[in-house]
Specification:
The chain has four helices and six strands. The chain is 32% helix and 47% strand. A six-stranded mixed β-sheet has the order 2-1-6-5-4-3. A hairpin with a 7-residue loop joins strand 1 and strand 2. It is α+β, with helices and mostly antiparallel strands.
Amino acid sequence: MTNLEIIKSTYEGKTSEENGKNLAKYVADDISWTEAKGFPYAGTYIGLDNVIKNVFSRLGSEWIDYKFTPEDYVASDNKVVAYGTYLGTYKLTGKVFSARVAHLWKLRDGKIISFEQFVDSQTVNNAIK
């Protein structure tokens, strides 16, 4: 698979579970995963277990229908950018948000070695308050 096909497989599966399985299949053991400064889950997490604990499990438990809808991708050498929109409802407040976002992925030898999120965190934080 090309780097672009690998990244698309983490977003465009039939279910979230399929996307998660594809991510697990292609992620390097020591992936560096960075959530944007100002985002509720901001920080850099090393390894998929830490990403699941600090990001995915929280997204799943604190939000209703939280999702990223990719609009398009840009690929060059070992980098792939996916950009689009986040949408979700925060459970405790019932507030809905929409935010533009870009994800920068880096790969080496068919494995995802890093992820960095760029997002309008203010719209997300407004839904939490």
